[in-house]
């Protein structure tokens, strides 16, 4: 469709086309009726507007691309880790894990030693009560077999495999019987005992079970100044 701008009307650019508007009631004038100078001015203005639109569109695309690249770079800087940071994090995790594992093993060894000491003390209390109740002697003997050590108070020789209530095996492995007083036992006829002690030892420390002449049994920590129970 040929251009037909009205006389004295303004024109506007819309969607890469030059459109002329005129007030209502006016008739479109033909392009041929315009003078050569007016036609030249209209074409020049249209070309300026078109190139200005293209330049603005290119600038907008360039800025949008730059903003998108800046956002991606910021995300990579915020959420990414360098190789050195990853190695330092892994090293710290390994150090903390080794320290925690060592502490847990140490605590486990202490608990097992304590439980074995309490087991031996309760066994001696049982022997004392049995000797006093039936007026008989209960002399403690130490046995040894392929499994480990045991305490027995029946017969002439200790039998670790008997499995009776007068035979004791340690509840946990790794606990050694470091020392025992010879002839240690309870005598029910006079309700007395042969004074002495037993010492249990492991990597976590040692405990002693002390027996007095009157049959009093105490549990003492060997590596401390006091703390008998």
From TrEMBL:
Subcellular location: Membrane
SUPFAM superfamilies reported for this sequence: Pili subunits
GO cellular component: membrane
Record's keyword annotation contains Metal-binding: no
Predominant place of localization: membrane
Keyword Transmembrane assigned: yes
Membrane protein topology class: Single-pass membrane protein
Stretches assigned to coiled coil: none
Keywords, comma-separated and alphabetical: Membrane, Transmembrane, Transmembrane helix
Ranges that cross the membrane: 81-104
UniProt name for this protein: Prepilin peptidase dependent protein A
Organism: Klebsiella pneumoniae 30684/NJST258_2
